[in-house]
Amino acid sequence: MKEWLTAIAENAVVIIHAMALVIIVIGTVEAFCRSIRAVFSPSAGGRLFRDAYLRYARWLVGGLTFQLAADILETSISPTWDDIGRVGAIAVIRTFLNFFLERDIAEAERHASEAGGAAAGPPQNAHPRDPAGHQRVVPEKEPER
User: Fold this and answer.
1) Alpha helix locations (H) across the chain?
2) Nearest residue to 60 via CA among 13, 94, 109, 106
3) In the chain, which end has fewer C-beta atoms inside a 10 angstrom radius, N or C?
4) Cα 39–chain centre separation
């Protein structure tokens, strides 16, 4: 029974690492494409670069979370204290990296909401967001004479 569970756990670790790899590769390719676009069509205040960084950070947080899950699973099947210590050190590094990435994301989102005119409020003719999340704005009617 123990050998059977160990074999399943070892395969699960490989699959989870592969999932993390896919997430990080997709995020990296997207960040590269967004960065190239930002270079050739600069925005005011570097908004395109900031947006590219935040999206990339989200991809990295997702990938690191999967890698951490694989590390935790790997510690349950590691036979020696040396293996457990090595995996534990990797898990600590990934956890700290994940913490700082999430902090940067939250700080950037808070800064963007403060600088984005949150105090001004929505326009007078604004309607609630449609099902796709886009804000609908209806043109004002001309006053009747």
Assistant:
1) 2-40, 47-77, 81-115
2) 94
3) C
4) 22
pTM metric for this prediction: 0.65
Largest CA distance in the chain: 87
Please report, in tens digits, the pLDDT of each residue of the chain (145 residues total): 888 888 999 999 999 999 999 999 999 999 999 999 988 887 777 788 888 888 998 899 899 889 888 888 888 887 788 878 878 888 888 888 888 888 888 888 888 788 765 444 444 444 444 444 445 444 455 556 5
Q: What residues are paired with 137 via a beta bridge? A: 126
If DSSP codes are grouped into helix, strand and coil, which group holds residue 56? Answer: helix
What type of residue sits at position 32?
F
The span from the CA of 58 to the CA of 75, in Å, is 26
